[in-house]
Amino acid sequence: xxxGMSSTQTADPLAAPPxxxxxxxxxxxxxxxxxxxxxxxxxASVRELHAFMRLRLAxxxxxxxxxxxxxxxxxxxxxxxxxxxxxxxxxxxPEKGRGRALRTTWLASxxxxxxxxxxxxxTDLQALPDLLAPLLAGTADVAIGTRxxxxxxxxxxxxxxxxxxAYNILLRLLLDVSFSDAQCGFKAARRxxxxxxxxxxxxxxxxFDTELLYLAQRGKLSIHEVPVRWVxxxxxxxAILHTALEDVRGIRRLRRNDADRVxxxxxxxxxxxxxx
Length: 276
Known about the structure:
Helix content is 37%, strand content 17%. The protein is α/β, with parallel strands linked by helices. Helix 1 (42-56) runs parallel beside helix 2.
């Protein structure tokens, strides 16, 4: 007699046996969109990104909206998107900081490749397959969009152009880096390679990108550059001069600590995952 049946009941021989629940496989790619007070543009941008990835990416993916201490309705919008779109997830951090948001979400990820992009989608999404392909194929450790390499198409104001070029020249002179564009908000990495670096990055703000790439180069990781089409968001919340000053302080810190820095890197390449 089966547990829960009366003595007069019999098992239905045609009833299908229960199917054991198995956890969903981890995504091949997780794209993080860090946001702070972006309720106005968040829904349209995430829907555009989601539609593009469904169309162009054959591998399973997640999109994580990382809300860092927004004071408007950004989190509510993110949660609505997560309910409506199956691959979209919302994560809230009580403290502000783009670097903090990326470190937290990337370290929590189970994806083979972790990536991020700015919510304004200033970088044309057509470059995304080229950004992800060498990482999924296991031929690179880190991939970055660049606005300063041959083949890039950039539309932005003179002040931002001058500040960007000056900053990257300063990095080459003072930190001896070889990558061309540290601050383009369009980056990806193999999770196993970048995870040990995330533990070593000290900056929680905008300098996070530069410090991560600096450590990747010091650790002899392969950095792949993808020229992008980039159009400046005229409603950007980034305070250019303030951010530049914070970046200069970060450069000084890296130079001061350079002699004692031991860079630990991650595991070898994973099995390739096909792209369409």
